[in-house]
Amino acid sequence: MSFTLAIVGRPNVGKSTLFNRLVGKRLALVDDQPGVTRDLREGEAKLGDIRFTVIDTAGLENETDDSLPARMRRLTERAVDMADVCLFLIDARAGILPDDEVFTEILRKRADKVILAANKAEGVAADAGVMEAYALGLGEPLRISAEHGEGMNELYSALLPID
Ligand code: GDP
Ligand code: MG
Asked: Where in the chain are the domains?
């Protein structure tokens, strides 16, 4: 049986980078500058011998006013409803920001289907951020680097029971 994984988290944590790595085609736009409005993007992912559908959440990048939490909530809840499991990404280099707390609040209600991952965790610069992620109360964060492909075995192990 296959499943659907939604990658959620605030802008710039590396969701599209991970989506591209899992899907293996450049279906999602990855950009350094905010400015392109996107929404939800689906692809067929492959990780080891597991195949699943992955959803990249975007479309929050243009929002800089206080409607951001409302839009975040809507988009994230939509992705969560579509998904069997959510991969909540935080940026281990940036540490936990207020927007990460907004996501945590949304996802806590569905904690049974949330996998927490600290992305950009390559190198020691990420250690403090990984420690902060523990404090979110969503379990032990996976240490991953979407850009460098690190932690993919651990992600595989976390997804195997769902497959
Ligand atoms: P999104 O807004 O969550 O989809 O984030 P993106 O995938 O667009 O990535 C935002 C920025 O973070 C880009 O400059 C990426 O190259 C960078 N990035 C993504 N993953 C990693 C990672 O594992 N390590 C580092 N150092 N940078 C990353
Ligand atoms: Mg993106």
From this structure: 4-159
ipTM of model: 0.99
Structure token digits, residue 64: 């800089």
The whole-model pTM stands at 0.90
Domain 4-159, CATH class in plain words: alpha beta
Q: What is the 3-state secondary structure (H, E, C) of the chain?
A: CCCEEEEECCCCCCHHHHHHHHHCCCCCCCCCCCCCCCCEEEEEEEECCEEEEEEEECCCCCCCCCCHHHHHHHHHHHHHHHCCEEEEEEECCCCCCHHHHHHHHHHHCCHHHEEEEEECCCCHHHHHHHHHHHCCCCCCCEECECCCCECHHHHHHHHCCCC
Pocket of ligand 1 (CB under 6 A): 11-17, 30-32, 119-120, 122, 145-148
Annotated binding site for GTP: 9-16, 56-60, 119-122
Q: Quick one: how far is CA 69 from the chain centroid?
A: 17
- pLDDT tens-digit map of 44-82: 999 999 999 999 987 665 555 555 667 777 888 888 888
